[in-house]
Structure formats: C-alpha cells, structure tokens
Specification:
Layout: H1 26-50, H2 70-79, H3 85-116, H4 122-131, H5 141-151, H6 157-161, H7 168-181, H8 184-192, H9 197-208, H10 210-226, H11 229-234, H12 243-250, H13 258-293
Helix pairs in contact: 1-13, 2-13, 3-7, 3-10, 3-12, 10-13, 12-13
Length: about 290
Amino acid sequence: MTTVARPARRKPRLVARAPQETPAGLWTYLFLALTMLFAAFPLYWMFVIATSDDQALAKLPPAIVPGDRFLTNVDEVFSLQDVYFAASLVNSVIVATVVTASVLFFCSLAGFAFAKLRFKGSNALMVFVVLTLTVPNQLGIVALYIVMGKLGWNGTLLAVIAPGLVTAFGVFYMRQFIVNTVPDELVESARMDGATTMRVYASIVLPAIRPALAVLGLLTFVATWNDFQWPLITLSGTDYPTSMVAVSDLASGNYVIYRRVLAGAFIATVPLLVMLFIGGRQIVRGIMEGAVKS
C-alpha cells in the first residue's frame, strides 16, 4: 500500500499595514484629548481672569467660568497712559512682519546657495553657521547694544528688526530641505536651458519649498512676537515698546491688577492663535514632507 505525501501547508503571510491604515484606538483618542485640554487650560484660565473682577483670583475653588467684564478690562488696558498698549501691538506687527519676510527671503536664498551652488569654503562656512546656534543670544547682548548705539538705532524699531533679519536656524533648515527636495538634475537642466541662478531660485526652488517656507515663517513670526529681552533693553525709556514689553509694564508697580495683566496678555496672544490656526496645516505638511523625504 503506497502512501501519498500531503503537500505542506503554507504559512499565512503577514502583511504589514501602513501607519495611516491603522485605526486609532480609544486610548489614543483619550490621550490626545487630555493632552489638548492640558495644553489649552492655561489660555482658557487666562481668558477667565481677563473677563472677571479682582476677587476672581481669591476664590476657592478657582473660577472656571468666564465673567462679563472683558470689554471693561480691555478698555482699561488700552486707556492706561503709561503703557501705550495699542501702539505696542502696532510695533509688534511691524517688527514681526518685516523680520519674517526678511528671514524667508534671505534664508531661502542662502539655503539654496549652500545646497545647490558650488563655491570655495562652502562646507566650512556652513559649519560656522551651525556652530553659531550653540552660542546663547544673551552672550551677545552687550556687544549688540554697543553696535546699535554706534549706529544711532537704540530706542528705535530698527534696533529690534536688524538683528533678526537672518537666522542661522533658518539657513540650516532651508539648506536641508532644499537638498532633499530639489534634485540636482532639475537644476542642471534649467542651467542648460539658459536659466540664470536667480531664475532657478524663483522658478524651481521657491515652488518646491513652499511647505518649508510656511513652517519657517510661522516659527519666525511667533518667536519675534514673543521676544522680550532684547526689545526691553533697546527700547527702554521709549513710549512705544513691543507687546511683550507692554504686558510686563502692566505687571509692574507695587500693586498689580492681574485682570488687566491677563487681559493684555490674552489680547497679545490672539494674533499668534490666528496665525497658527491659518498655517497649522502647513506646519504639519512641511514637517511630514521633510520627514518622509529625509
């Protein structure tokens, strides 16, 4: 009697699913919700105090429901004669807008030069740019103040704008993004067609790095708007500071009225929230594209 050998069973193949195809579980949503609430609670509580009276801070348990004095507190903030809060907001808009536009232009141009142009000493110069990131800004405050004094800019917005026109982080970030996004063959093809360097930058590089420009622009705008130390030093004694300095002026004095301070802080935060709401999608897109292409 002959026995027939049975064919060996094949083991089922395990097919890995992409991360975007994996559904999120209940614990994931719960963790994200708790994280969002934890991050947003300080802003919400700031708004609660900004809409309340002076007794809200002393309540036990603390007040968690907004009051009805927001317009009154805001009117007091803008009416203070020694703070100039409205002018400080205008100054912050001017400084943040000019610095952001300058950083986007010069850093993208420098990043393109480091990434796609060949010139002597480019690697050493790039290393020097990166090393400047390790130097704290506080170490250069005295020298920067002296330089601005020699130029006659101390006490003006030029002293706040000029040091931030180009950033080492922006140059490094744009260089890395352009290396991974713009192929060398595309640049060489454009050169063979007779395109100049600026034509290549405007027609090929800029359209390819829009997500990175959005990320860098938002980060620069937020950092410039929130800058406090240097505007406080160079604009000391002037009647028109930036918004962060104006908020600190609200908190100065022997008796601090916190509803005014938090009302001013909330008003100074609104432009940042608007910017992040408008460009939040671009931030995520730019980060994800950089991560995938690297």
